[in-house]
């Protein structure tokens, strides 16, 4: 069995060498006469080079024939079971089932192989968690999920944020029952629609004031598309499951820094425009403006 596998490996290797040298032949033919052939006798040099390549291919082909001759032929036809009857179907749709079945078997074999490797890795790198209990009699208090928060708690938190900024107006709607969608109007610069799930920000879209309030369609302006992309990054950065109020408040502070979107220059290049866009990125810690290429 091991000898058969070795012979198969030799045959495949010779086929690979043959294909590589045949590629060299076609490459030489496609390039034709080159500058390195010189001016005198370049036709003869090109023909000689081509003859050498063809001789190499001929030798490789002989090696492939010898390697294939050394292979052990299979003892008989493979047993395909009931799948052999698929080839007798007359309709074209059912005739294609056999190819799909073969692909599904290959996919299943790969899943089994990858699962075995993953299982071995998990067994050799087991992760054990240790917990320190300061009191055996005192139970840990179960924390309330940030997804399941009473509406009045969310409303009070949004109202508190609205009172923090005088140039930011927040209006609330509840098209999805308990979870609100707030529209933040930042002066005359932009407006943002923010969807909540409990006390977690789930989706943000930034648009111009003249655009629709549809939360699922992006702005038609490139500048607000960039601000929307950066808002998604900030939404993930400020996500805090243990302190959701702080996470929402930090995100709103970050969003408020866009009140100078069209007036503040980039902190790095000191230019207002780069690639026809203002600084659309705000640093997550310092809130300083940067262009996408300068951050």
TrEMBL record:
The terms under GO molecular function for this entry are: transcription coactivator activity
Supply the source organism's classification.
Answer: Eukaryota, Metazoa, Ecdysozoa, Arthropoda, Hexapoda
Key word Transmembrane helix present: no
Record-stated family? Belongs to the Mediator complex subunit 27 family.
Q: Which GO terms describe its biological process?
A: regulation of transcription by RNA polymerase II
Could you identify this protein by its name? Mediator of RNA polymerase II transcription subunit 27
Q: Which UniProt keywords apply?
A: Nucleus, Transcription, Transcription regulation
Principal localisation: nucleus
User: Which species expresses this protein natively?
Assistant: Oryctes borbonicus
Give the location in the cell.
Nucleus
InterPro entries under this entry?
Answer: Mediator_Med27 (IPR021627)
This protein's record includes keyword Repeat: no
GO CC aspect terms: mediator complex
């Amino acid at each position: 069995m091991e000898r058969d596998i070795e012979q198969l490996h030799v045959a495949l290797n010779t086929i690979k060498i043959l294909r590589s040298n045949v590629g060299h032949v076609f490459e030489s033919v496609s390039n034709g006469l080159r500058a390195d052939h010189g001016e005198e006798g370049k036709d003869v040099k090109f023909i000689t080079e081509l003859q050498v390549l063809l001789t190499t291919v001929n030798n490789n082909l002989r090696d492939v024939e010898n390697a294939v001759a050394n292979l052990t032929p299979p003892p008989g036809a493979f047993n395909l079971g009931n799948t052999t009857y698929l080839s007798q179907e007359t309709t074209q749709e059912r005739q294609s089932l056999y190819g799909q079945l073969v692909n599904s078997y290959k996919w299943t074999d790969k899943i089994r192989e990858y699962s075995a490797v993953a299982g071995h890795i998990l067994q050799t790198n087991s992760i054990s968690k240790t917990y320190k209990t300061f009191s055996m009699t005192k139970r840990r208090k179960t924390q309330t999920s940030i997804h399941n928060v009473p509406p009045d708690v969310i409303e009070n938190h949004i109202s508190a944020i609205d009172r923090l900024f005088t140039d930011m107006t927040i209006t609330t709607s509840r098209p999805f029952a308990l979870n609100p969608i707030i529209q933040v109007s930042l002066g005359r610069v932009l407006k943002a629609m923010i969807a909540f799930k409990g006390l977690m920000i789930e989706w943000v879209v930034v648009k111009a004031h003249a655009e629709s309030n549809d939360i699922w369609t992006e702005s038609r302006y490139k500048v607000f598309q960039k601000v929307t992309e950066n808002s998604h990054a900030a939404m993930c950065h400020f996500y805090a499951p243990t302190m959701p109020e702080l996470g929402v408040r930090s995100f709103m502070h970050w969003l408020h820094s866009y009140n100078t979107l069209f007036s503040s220059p980039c902190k790095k290049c000191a230019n207002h425009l780069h690639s026809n866009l203002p600084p659309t990125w705000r640093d997550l810690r310092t809130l300083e403006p940067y262009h996408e290429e300068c951050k």
